[in-house]
């Protein structure tokens, strides 16, 4: 199923955040264009084996970010604003960067050590660690 999302209970990322990330990824990749209908909250909860509350939280976050719009009685759809997905990704990036800085400080790494490792990671193809 093309609209299927793959959620992992073993991931350190909360389920609602996995839903947000995967919807944003599909929108950014053009797989789900503007106006594309999202699975209903109940359908996605059932297919993903998560609670309705989890999916509802993800959809609310996506709505707040402007990635999707929900029309009462009709469902949720990808919004017309393509930049909204970028805003969600930037928010995710900033959160992960803050976590990186916290971990670097915990390890006692110097700023130059962190920069060197980031530059090294950026020089690798995107699918390499």
TrEMBL record:
Residues 13-81 form the HTH gntR-type domain. Keywords: DNA-binding, Transcription, Transcription regulation. Gene3D superfamilies: Winged helix-like DNA-binding domain superfamily/Winged helix DNA-binding domain. Pfam families: GntR. InterPro entries: Tscrpt_reg_HTH_GntR (IPR000524), WH-like_DNA-bd_sf (IPR036388), WH_DNA-bd_sf (IPR036390). One of its GO terms (molecular function) is DNA binding. This is Transcriptional regulator, GntR family.
